[in-house]
Design goal:
The chain has 302 residues and is α/β, with parallel strands linked by helices. The chain is 38% helix and 18% strand.
Length: 302
């Protein structure tokens, strides 16, 4: 039985490299609905994409919402039970959607199913909240449906059943970048929901190939952007699930290390590492004082 008509692929973009995005779209089954949430007001982009890909609609957010808020907006605008979150730099294996069909059977109860990689990426696409359990998870066998229950899955591509995940309480919009999917998975696990990784659903993840990341003029700016948010979101996550003091204890070493490395690379005139460690230091500094996740590319060192 075909359940793909109850699936919508949601792709959040922000001035994403067109070739990379179209490679993603072309790897998706043409019978599956696609909703692109473009975090800008680019009407030409909307017109061009919708004219070229008949199974695709574009929703303009009119501002850069980030990954979490962008996907929240996407889920509020789909009419299918299942949503497949997809980064624009994902390429789906040819049989991905044929194999995904079996997971869309309403008899299978899950909140989230994550994917596996078919390229040379050695990073695990899933993990445990307690890192000590990761060894156990790696050795745990997949069941007859090629599924393994885990604590969290990576957010580059994952299927969400909206019957088990409240679309009004999905991604924490205080987080702009990093930890969004881990935070969501943790809340789902606390509520008793099931999260699986599938060894049967395979994707190629190009990694950091969207938006400004592909523009050599923004290399340092992009690294600063990522490092600022990595540190800010790390502290916010630990504070959310523990308390301020524990988060401070966990991150204070990285704060001091980032400050000293910033000073060291300033003396050495290493601009790239100087700005990277300043971004880390500054991200934690802002998080310590409760500042919102405000940093965007080109908002520093103009």
């Amino acid at each position: 039985m075909n359940f793909l008509n109850d699936l919508t692929v949601i792709i959040v973009t922000y001035k994403t490299n067109r070739e990379i995005l179209e490679n993603c779209i072309n790897s998706i089954d043409p019978t599956v609905k696609i909703l692109i949430v473009e975090n800008s007001s680019d009407k030409d982009f909307k017109k061009e994409i919708e004219n070229k890909f008949k199974n695709t609609s574009v929703l303009l957010a009119n501002k850069n919402l980030g990954y979490g808020a962008g996907n929240n907006l996407g889920f509020k605008n789909i009419k299918t039970r299942y949503g497949l979150i997809s980064n624009p730099d994902i390429v789906y294996k040819k049989d991905f959607f044929e194999k995904a069909n079996k997971y869309l059977n309403p008899e299978l109860k899950f909140a989230i199913i994550g994917v596996s990689y078919y390229d040379d990426d050695q990073n695990l696409p899933y993990g445990a909240i307690d890192n000590k359990k990761n060894i156990f998870l790696k050795e745990k066998k997949y069941d007859s449906n090629y599924l393994k229950e885990v604590d969290w899955v990576v957010g580059c591509s994952l299927i969400i059943d909206t019957n088990f995940v409240d679309i009004n309480d999905m991604f924490d919009e205080k987080i702009f970048l990093y930890f969004e999917e881990i935070d969501l998975c943790r809340r789902i696990k606390i509520a008793g929901g099931k999260i699986f990784n599938s060894s049967d659903l395979k994707v190629k993840h190009l990694g950091n190939r969207g938006s400004a990341a592909t523009d050599p003029d923004y290399t340092i700016e992009t690294e600063m952007f990522r490092n600022w948010h990595w540190m800010w979101s790390s502290f916010y996550y630990h504070k959310k699930y523990n308390n301020y003091l524990i988060a401070l204890l966990k991150m204070s070493g990285k704060f001091i290390k980032s400050l000293f490395k910033f000073l060291f690379f300033s003396i050495c005139y290493n601009k790239k590492k100087q700005t990277m460690y300043f971004a880390r230091f500054y991200g934690l500094f802002c998080a310590f004082f409760g500042t919102k996740s405000f940093y965007r590319v080109k908002s520093l060192f103009k």
